[in-house]
Amino acid sequence: LSTTPTDEELEAVFIKTDADLSGTIEFPEFAEWVVNKVDLTSQDDLREIFSLIDLDGNGSISVDELRQLLDSLKVNLSEDELTTLIVKADSNNNGVIDYKEFLESDELWSQIKLTVGVTRSFKEILKQYTQLAENPQVGFGTINPLPYGKENAAKVGYDVSQLPDQVWESSCMCGNSFSLGPINQGETVVDLGCGAGADLCVAASLVGETGKVIGVDMTAAMVKKARENAELCNFTTIEVIKAPFDMGKHEDIPESVADVVISNGTFNLSPRKKCAFVQAYNCLKPGGRFYFVDVVREGNSESEIQEGSWCDCVAGAIPISKVLELMESVGFVECEHVGFTSYRTSDYTVTATFRAKKAD
Predict the structure, then answer these.
(1) Which pLDDT belongs to residue 12?
(2) Could you tell me whether strands 212-217 and 188-192 are parallel, antiparallel, or unpaired per DSSP bridges?
(3) Strands (DSSP E) along 183-257, which ranges?
């Protein structure tokens, strides 16, 4: 729009924004228009976006981190173009982009449109998992239907008879974390990306009344469903925390408390995978165990992976070798790829199971 828009321009914007043709623009329609058409540039937005790109949390953006972001947003730049972008933004010539340089780089913003891209990816994930929590009968998956619910849980190895059907209906596990090692009476278990809480309930049945189970999820509807499921099963040892699990450190997520950390099909959804592994490591007591199941990239399928949907557990998948590398890089020992499950999200992804420990 011009600074003094005509009536025709205003009418055109109104018609495009009024998605339900009600004759009024409700807040969700306005928010959708903002996300799709306007760069969000408040200080809070900028800091959040910077932290999302800064995968290792060291306060600067490297070429590799910027490349991962561009790939996830389907922005095609050659290596020369990427290097030029970094050089122009890197005013102090130290090879990385710090926060001040990030704010001042107009070209960086105009060429890759970071705010809108990241916001869209985040919104897509929240929308899909909110729907799964609130209306599981609708189905799961944005491009192709994905397995979920009670039937899927049974297929990947759960004894679904031990919990009410409602507990399974919004579950979307890609494997069985409990097949990877023991969980004992009296232990504390943390589930990162707990979803609707099926794994929380299984864990609670294993640790008993003297144990503790803590679930972490960023989707409000899933947190609500997980708490309802815990109450339905009369598990008083379950606590569910609404928080991102991929910040490396979060004030609401306790550290050094867990005998076991589990995660089931969630790390692939995060662009901050190293920070997610840092969080898992930080939650564990010395000697604690990490039982991890996730969708991974199969073979040399990088180009096909990038064409997939992030929230359908395709575009965010990384190779098994990279999973092991990341676990070792944050301090885990005895890192092991255990095997595979039958769960697939595309022709180019497969589900793998892993074990690791925090040193004594």
Answers:
(1) 62
(2) parallel
(3) 188-192, 212-217, 238-242
- pLDDT of residue 75 exceeding 90, the answer is no
Burial class (CB in 10 A: 0-12, 13-18, 19+), 111: middle
In angstroms, the CA 171 to CA 132 distance is 8
- Distance of alpha carbon 205 from alpha carbon 159, whole angstroms: 12
| Nearest in space to 181 (alpha carbons), one of 239, 238, 261, 268 | 261
Query: pLDDT tens, 55-73?
Result: 778 888 888 887 776 665 5
- Name residues whose C-beta falls within 8 Å of residue 270's C-beta, 6 or more positions apart in sequence: 245, 246, 276, 316
Helix (H) or strand (E) holding 81: helix 79-89
Q: Among all chains, which residue has been given the structure tokens 């600074």?
A: 3
Q: For the chain, list the domains and their CATH numbers.
A: 7-38 (no CATH), 43-112 (1.10.238.10), 151-357 (3.40.50.150)
Q: What are phi and psi of 293, to 5 degrees?
A: -125, 130
- Tens digit of pLDDT for each residue in 143-158? 778 899 999 999 999 9
pTM for this entry: 0.70
Residue 3 has pLDDT above 50, yes or no: no
Binning the chain into helix, strand and coil, the percentages to the nearest 5 are 45, 15, 40
Mean pLDDT highest for which of 63-67, 280-284, 311-315?
Answer: 280-284
- What b-and-e string marks burial along 256-287, b requiring 16 or more CB atoms within 10 Å of the CB? ebbbbbbbbbbbbbbbbbbbbbbbbbbbbbee
Q: Give per-residue pLDDT as tens, 114-135.
A: 444 455 566 778 888 899 999 9
Nearest to residue 239, comparing CAs of 276, 197, 281, 278?
197
Please list, in sequence order, all residues whose beta carbon lies within 8 angstroms of the beta carbon of residue 350, skipping any fewer than 6 positions away.
295, 296, 298, 340, 344
In angstroms, the Cα distances linking 126 to 1, 244, 321 are 30, 12, 28
Which DSSP helix (H) or strand (E) runs through 309? none
